[in-house]
Amino acid sequence: MAKPLDFVRLGSSFKGLMTRAVNEFDRYMEDEAGNYRWVFVENPERIARALEILAEDLPEESLARVVPKMPYLFLLFRDHDMEPVIPVEATLAFLSIISQSGMITIMRQCSDREQLAASFDLDPAHWDPMVFMVAGIPNLNEAHEEDAPEHCHFF
Predict the structure, then answer these.
(1) Model confidence, pTM
(2) Model confidence over 81-122: pLDDT tens digits?
(3) Buried b (16+ CB within 10 A) or exposed e, 114-142
(4) Among residues 75, 13, 19, 70, which one has the least CA distance to residue 44?
(5) Which candidate, 77, 101, 79, places its Cα nearest to that of 18?
(6) Phi, psi for 22 (deg, rounded to 5)
(7) How far apart are CA 137 and CA 71, in angstroms?
(8) Of 5, 16, 63, 132, which has the fewest beta carbons less than 10 angstroms from its beta carbon?
C-alpha cells in the first residue's frame, strides 16, 4: 500500500498568489466579477470548522482522509440572484495560476446555503457558496526521510 501524502504550505506569499489567481479569474469574468466573492482560509481552526459544514460534500472516504491534511481552503460564492452556473473558463484560469505554484487542489460543489456565508461574514440571503477547494503542496520527499543511506549525515 502506498504511503499517504502529506501537504505543506507555500514557500511564497499566500495572499499574493491568491490575488494573482483572482485577477486572472476577474479578467475572464469582465463586468460580472462583482457578482462573485472569494474567501481564502489558511487558519487551521477556521478550516476545521468549515470542513465540518462541508463534510456532506465529501462522501468519498479516501478524500475525507486527505482533505484535512491540506493547509488551504478556497470558497467561491455567487450573488443569490445569479444562475448557479460555475464560470468554467474563469475557474480554469484561476486554477492555472494555482498550479504554477505547485499547489494541488481538490474541488467540490457546496450544498450548504446558510452556515458558510455567515461564518465568513457574508450575508447568506445575498451570497450562495458554489464551490470549495482544499489545496496544498504535496510533500513528495517526506516518504524518503527514513530511507537515507548510512553514508549520509544530516545536521
Answers:
(1) 0.87
(2) 988 888 999 999 999 999 999 999 999 999 988 899 999 999
(3) eebbebbebebeebbbbbbbbbbbeeeee
(4) 70
(5) 101
(6) -70, -35
(7) 9
(8) 16
Q: Residue 132: what residue type?
A: F
Cell reading at 68: 484535512
Rg of the chain over all Cα atoms, to the nearest angstrom: 18
Tell me the pLDDT tens digit for each residue of 31-82: 898 999 999 999 999 999 999 999 888 888 877 788 888 999 999 999 999 8
Q: Which of 74, 89, 95, 107 is nearest to 30 (CA)?
A: 89
What does DSSP say about strands 104-109 and 72-79: parallel, antiparallel, or unpaired? unpaired
Report pLDDT for 3. 63
